[in-house]
């Protein structure tokens, strides 16, 4: 199969939509569709429902399927849909097959949460999922610094539909080595730590980056992408400086408020409720005021 259109979609801003809730705590379908339309109208070409910014681990099976279906319907060919799947291998396979039946283009395989991860077992886990949906692109979400480039290369050799890697280890030097050991051109390398890490990862081989901030200000994320593509690192760093405090708030205490800050910003803009599910927690009033002040000057 020709996976080149999927590779192109990954070499871009890969948006991770939030999952808004209504007053009763259920997924707010209308708000979710509106947020997706805002991303699409803003120029986003790839969206990942059921990502971590979408509170993947706080959603039920039925809710994850609902979010997948809503995303495919709303995207309607305007953007590639990369559905987050995970948990045990059987559950991930079922989710991948559902994504395929719903009309998605790719699946992103969340980092296995099992406390004991062997390198060969990591390969087997992803191979099981990739072989279950050979028509779909597959993108491992790699947060484990112990997974070597050689393991990724072996996975790619057996599974041609593994088209990219979302790399989210806080070490650009490690990323540079892993990408080259795995195959810099074999996979699309997506900087999985969003905008603050995008310039350093781009310099050593990434050609796309994920974003939760894009929910709030699509133009800001796309401005960084444009600067990086043009090799304009001073321009990219201007964006970096603009968003630094916002992203630092998300990253505090091992990213405890990763989703909370994004939803707070959207709430300040009147786009959805601020509600998050445990183990996340809404911001206190002081934090809400700071987030509102940060995003006040950001245009849609």
TrEMBL record:
Which InterPro entries does this entry report, sorted A to Z?
Answer: Aldolase_TIM (IPR013785), DapA-like (IPR002220)
Q: Does the keyword Lyase apply?
A: yes
Q: Which SMART domains match?
A: DHDPS (SM01130)
- Name the domain of life: Bacteria
Supply the Pfam families for this chain.
DHDPS
Q: Which GO terms describe its molecular function?
A: 4-hydroxy-tetrahydrodipicolinate synthase activity
Keywords assigned: Lyase
Q: Under which EC number(s) is this enzyme classified?
A: 4.3.3.7
Presence of the UniProt keyword Lyase in the record: yes
* Family label: Belongs to the DapA family.
Output this protein's name.
4-hydroxy-tetrahydrodipicolinate synthase
Species of origin reads Streptomyces demainii
């Amino acid at each position: 199969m020709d996976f080149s259109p999927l590779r192109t979609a990954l070499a871009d801003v890969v948006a991770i939509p939030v999952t808004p809730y209504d007053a009763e705590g259920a997924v707010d379908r209308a708000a979710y569709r509106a947020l997706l339309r805002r991303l699409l109208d803003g120029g986003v070409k790839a969206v990942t429902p059921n990502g971590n910014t979408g509170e993947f681990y706080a959603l039920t099976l039925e809710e994850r399927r609902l979010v997948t279906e809503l995303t495919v319907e709303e995207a309607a060919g305007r953007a590639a849909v990369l559905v987050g799947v995970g948990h045990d291998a059987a559950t991930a396979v079922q989710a991948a097959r559902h994504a395929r039946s719903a009309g998605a283009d790719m699946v992103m395989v969340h980092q296995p949460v099992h406390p004991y991860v062997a390198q060969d077992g990591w390969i087997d886990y992803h191979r099981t999922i990739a072989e279950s949906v050979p028509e779909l692109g597959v993108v491992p979400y790699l947060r484990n610094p112990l997974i070597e480039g050689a393991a990724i290369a072996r996975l790619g050799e057996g599974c041609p539909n593994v088209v990219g890697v979302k790399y989210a280890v806080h070490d650009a030097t490690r990323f540079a080595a892993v990408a080259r050991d795995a195959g810099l051109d074999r996979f699309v390398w997506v900087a999985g730590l969003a905008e603050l890490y995008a310039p350093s990862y781009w310099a050593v081989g990434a050609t796309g980056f994920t974003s939760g901030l894009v929910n709030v200000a699509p133009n800001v994320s796309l401005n960084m992408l444009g600067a990086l593509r043009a090799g304009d690192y001073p321009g990219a760093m201007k964006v970096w400086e603009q968003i630094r405090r916002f992203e630092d708030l998300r990253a505090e205490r091992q990213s405890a408020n990763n989703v909370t800050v994004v939803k707070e910003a959207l709430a300040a803009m009147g786009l959805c409720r601020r509600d998050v599910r445990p183990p996340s927690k809404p911001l206190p009033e002081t934090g809400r005021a700071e987030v509102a002040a940060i995003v006040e000057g950001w245009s849609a």
